[in-house]
Fold:
Amino acid sequence: MSGFATVRRLPWLAVAACVTACQTQAPEAARLRSAGQVLAAAPELAGARVAFLVVDTGTRRELAAAEAHRGLLPASNQKLITAAVALETLGGEATLPTELLATGPVRDGVLEGDLVLRGHGDPSFGVGASGDAVLAAFAAALRARGVREIAGRVRGDGSWLGDERLGRGWQWDHLGDDFAAPFGGLCCAGNVLEVRLRPTPAGPAMQVVPVADELPILRVAMAAPGAPTELVATRPIWGGSLEVRGTLAADAPEQVLRVPVADPAAFAAQVLLAVLRREGIAVRGGVLSAGESWQVAVHESPPLGALVAAMLRDSDNLAAEQLWRVAARTLRGNGSSATAELHSRAVLARLGVAVDGLVLADGSGLSRRNLVQPAQLVQLLVAMQQSPQSPAFLAGLPIAGRTGTLRARFAQGPATGQVLAKTGTLARVQALSGYVLRPNGAAPWAFSVVVENHTCSDATALAALDAFVGELASAAGW
Structure:
């Protein structure tokens, strides 16, 4: 049974209730070949690499192809691989715990030891209001055990996933951006600190979210009303103090800067420390205790299927890096990039995906070391359509003109509501891979298209790619 049956919950996809074998008619195939020729010969893409493959999932018949076995940068289409590997390894119902541990006894309201926050790869821990509520619940669990004060320190433990924090081949000039936040066994608030600045008569007023123990250094000058506001947040790549510099106009609206943290585990500990103090639990610090730990409380992540769906829908890089490594760590005892690549190749091979020529440097697609063929992505899409994990895999795919990273694309035309696909964007790369639904319950078409090394603007390249996918939807009968 195909997972496309699950889309009946969405009214605009009700026609795609099931998959049946269907022989493609010659006019449709000819039209697809013509659309592919138009894309490959587009003058705005002169000099670029253009590769694509379209396959009827019912008959496995190739409908249109060009350079389909050329290894290219997949950008965030890499997340399709991560989603499949995580779901096939762990299942959609698996959860990832985050534990609160204590290393000493409680005497007269004092925990005579350290408090340790230990993660097991949950990318959603500490995110938003619900994340703050979890941390407050940890404080409540301490109070329930009679703890009013902690003699030792609050420590973050992200060792479960190893020491790596950045992906192989990530661009150095991305490392200050929130979409390239470091990963690890313990995450909190997406491993991103928000610095909010607003002008007041007394000067810049600053708020950080989430509240952490260490505040950024503020070097911001006030400027006259109407003057440009120019702010930048900087931190040495390998750690050090966060500084906010620049000018803030007296009439400027609130400014929000999102900055990746340097050490995710230490940051999580800082956030927990701030919450403990807010909840009335004192922390002395300065004491490192030995001995065995005991569990104070534990928080389980949402089911893996929900984490995967959010990762695909929003193209969440941190979640992708976490889940890629969690799968390898769980099955092979090691969460390194090298082991995650080895594990992924094994899972893909079991799914029937040809892995020769495949290079997986990270789980998100940020790396420029990745090499994936459109043919390999289409093989994966066909395999996941028939997998028991199909419903969870399909649930997160953005819907053209409707959801996620495709919400603002294909707002009109035949593709609207009829294409489920993962987007991908890097400098000089545009990619889109997924399914074109078909009327009357006919088997969908699986497709992957990648435009790499274009010299036109991203918007121009994207328009050419989207025009091709629009033709696919039209040829499908929409």
Summary: The CA atoms of residues 187 and 421 lie 28 Å apart. Residues 175-260 form one domain. Residues 5-24 have pLDDT under 50 and may be disordered.
